[in-house]
Amino acid sequence: QVRIFCFSDRVDKARELVDKTGDRAGAYHLARQYEDAGRFEEAIKFYTKSECYNNAIRLAKEHGMKTEMMSLALRSTKADMIEAAEYYESQPGSIDKAVTLYHKGGRVSKALELCFKHNLYQALGAIAEDLDKDADPEMLEKAATFFLKAQRYDKAATLLVNAGKFDEALDLCMTHNVVISEDMAEKMTLPKAEEEDQNKYRNKILEKVANICVVQGSYQLATRKYMQAGNKINAMKALLKCGDTEKIVFFATKCREKEVYVMAANYLQTLDWRRDQEIMKNIVNFYTKGKALDSLANFYDSCAQVEIDDYQEYDKALTALNEALSCMGKAKMKDFKEQESKISALQSRIALLTRFCDIRRMAASEPVEMVRQVRQLIQEPNIESAVRIGDAYALIIEYYASSSRFQEAYQAMQELRERIPNVNIAYYVSMRTVEAVHRAIGIPIGPNVAPGRKTLDKDEVPEDM
What we know:
By secondary structure, the chain is mainly alpha-helical. The chain has helices spanning 2-7, 11-21, 24-36, 40-49, 53-62, 66-75, 78-89, 95-104, 108-118, 121-128, 137-149, 153-162, 166-176, 182-187, 196-216, 219-228, 232-242, 245-255, 258-268, 277-289, 293-311, 314-330, 336-361, 367-377, 389-402, 406-419, 431-441. The longest helix has 26 residues, at 336-361.
């Protein structure tokens, strides 16, 4: 029917019909009618509707319609794209269009050649996205060199990776802080080979990737690459920097390496293990499996000190010190003299602590004897290595105050102040007792007394540290 309308010179009717039905054959016939009539824009439009892009491109080319020609070529066949690219290459100011069409048409090398010749960095960047490991290595290296000169180090590194130049790419990443992405790292992860030399190269590249990832703060990626290289120790070191406790515990459990166990336990000690029994359990477990009994002894020693400093639980501290002594006795330290010295120090502290625990139990039944023995104990030369002087004096002060012997209680307070200048008595003795003593003897409480807090001088370290 379109043919009939055209034959009877009713072109407008033919056009309405084509617009309504979208018939390709009708659109082609109508386009030819417009071309014969010299109405080239309408002809191009209906050639496009009929999907006869080569005719549309031909008309656009013949009549200088560069913008229309570009969009048409991109919708046509690769052969048409290349033909259009050759046309644009010959036209001043149209090299960027030629590059795009050569690229889309499959003539990548030609597109790159034009980019290099005319310094088209943006166009080359778009092409580089499609250049993978299957591209011509020589072309990849040439493109990388081009980007290096333009100081586009990220693009250059990606191209070098695709070209298989891993060492050069990694040196570039390190020198110019190009972030190694997951994709780049995977491309540099070669499959395991049967030949030893190839596996050595594979592991060397993996460790180099991991080292740079650590510097860049990509700790989890670094951990994975170290593991693939078989370096469990460095893998754990990278993982520790993440601070992900759950992953650290899981890794140590699965890894089953002595040094890894110890590293995990050392990390867990930096956490609030006092309030989390699971963390404490893992610390003991990891040191035990890591055969680091000297470290486990030190941990039990820390536990004992916490029980004393934070809770005044001397019986629990004594239990922890006995565990420390047991571990230190079984440890295999390289320096035997140092080990013997530590054992001796622990035995001395345990002896003092045992005496103090026994004395505390006498408070209710034999308070007078308790006071006598406390005064003997605080004269021991190394008493402060096991017992806080304030806690020892607190037994005396509390007893005298409860017996209404306030003058003697105050005297004991003064002795404590001589032993620990600027001490806050209320840190060791209940505030109620302190107030009762001062009220009974008529002496006002000094400014250095506050509930539950110790006044520090400039050389003193807070005990909770």
